[in-house]
Amino acid sequence: MFNFFYFLLLFHLLQAQAQALTSPADVSALKAFKSSIKPSSIPSWSCLASWDFAADPCAVPRRTHFICGVSCSPDATRVTQITLDPVGYSGQLTPLISRLTQLTTLDLSDNYFFGPIPSSISSLRNLQTLTLKSNSFSGSIPDSLTTLKSLESLDLSHNSMSGNLPKNLNSLSSLRRLDLSYNKLTGFLPKLPFNLLELALRGNSLSGYISKSAFDGLNQLEVVELSVNSFSGTLGAWFFLLPSLQQVDLANNSLTGVEISKPAGGNSDLVAVNLGFNKIAGNVPSNFAGYPMLSSLSLRYNRLRGAIPLGYSKKKTLRRLFLDGNFLIGIPPAEFFAGDTAVTGSLGDNCLRGCPGNSELCSPRQKSNAICKQAYGGKLRS
Ligand SMILES: *[C@@H]1O[C@H](CO)[C@@H](O)[C@H](O)[C@H]1NC(C)=O
């Protein structure tokens, strides 16, 4: 008798699970999400094509309906992830996305979404990953986005976002990875989220100084990609002392100077630095040689003068060195051309003497005497 009762109960529970009961707010949000995408951009074999609301979105098993693109909570009541396939869906992101309050991942990468990122996205309190890369989103980054305390990864790269970076960007206290590269962002760097590991803002029109206050307390920052912008001024000595720094790309900006001190206690994880295509004047900074892991250094196409620091040629970790396109003088250290040297790169297009023409390091050839003399006010000895 009892056994039969339990059997019935179990049967009903299982059946309820199979039918599932996705919360009505989530179902209506999914419907709104799908209906703001142009039907003609939904291939018949795609994830979105399988979103047929005759069935419950979270019901398992999913053999015919909601086959992919959406995940639910274990009790099948709430939508927790939307990860679309990159098939060229075109449409807007509906503001009603805000109803999916248990969403932890929204990934619409490599499609043709356009229009603004709705500011109602700030209702997604549990959102950890927001990836809208390689679409056609435009407008400014909504300020409200900075209230998403759970957000760990934000990737809006390769869109047409414009305007300034949100002033309160540093309120994103869980953010580890920020990629806003290849947009049309302007203005200065605000104070950055202090838990960042990776900062990528390549290919925008950001300007002003790379200021210490923006990077204050970023003790975990490992990767900084700010190339192809309009940053100017002198990069202060504090920058390369950020304690976790590994890779830095500041190429193609308008920096005019760089200050570098030796790493604190001789410890640094810095591996790669690219400062090429700026307007950096002065001598080649010899202190780079004091960074124990440094393996790739580019200072190409700047306005550097003087001799190549001897420390560079004695640095065993250095594998790639680009100093071409400056006004360097003197004779390059012989170590660079020793038979077993592993350094590749270029010392070409400078004012060096005795750079062995048979070494790849010496290509392209040096600047003409006339240009070099002019650069040194006629005082260049040759
Ligand atoms: C940097 O600038 C140089 C010179 O203008 C250009 O040839 C190069 O393509 C630029 N690099 C990038 C990544 O835009």
Give a written overview of the molecule.
Residues 92-251 form the Disease resistance R13L4/SHOC-2-like LRR domain. This protein has a domain at 20-112: Leucine-rich repeat, LRR (right-handed beta-alpha superhelix) (Alpha-Beta Horseshoe). It is built from 5 helices and 24 strands. The chain has helices at residues 2-19, 24-35, 212-215, 310-314, 369-375, and strands at 70-72, 79-83, 90-91, 105-107, 112-115, 129-131, 136-140, 153-155, 160-164, 177-179, 184-187, 198-200, 205-208, 223-225, 230-235, 247-249, 254-258, 272-274, 281-283, 296-298, 303-306, 320-322, 327-328, 344-346. Strands 1-2-4-6-8-10-12-14-16-18-20-22-24 form a 13-stranded mixed beta sheet, with no helix packed on it. It is elongated, with a radius of gyration of 28 Å. It starts with a helix and ends in a 7-residue tail after the last helix. The relative contact order is 0.05. The chain binds 2-acetamido-2-deoxy-beta-D-glucopyranose (NAG). 2-acetamido-2-deoxy-beta-D-glucopyranose binds at residues 228, 252, 277.
Write the layout of secondary structure elements.
Elements: H1 2-19, H2 24-35, E1 70-72, E2 79-83, E3 90-91, E4 105-107, E5 112-115, E6 129-131, E7 136-140, E8 153-155, E9 160-164, E10 177-179, E11 184-187, E12 198-200, E13 205-208, H3 212-215, E14 223-225, E15 230-235, E16 247-249, E17 254-258, E18 272-274, E19 281-283, E20 296-298, E21 303-306, H4 310-314, E22 320-322, E23 327-328, E24 344-346, H5 369-375
Parallel strand pairs: 2-4, 3-5, 4-6, 5-7, 6-8, 7-9, 8-10, 9-11, 10-12, 11-13, 12-14, 13-15, 14-16, 15-17, 16-18, 18-20, 19-21, 20-22, 21-23, 22-24
Antiparallel strand pairs: 1-2
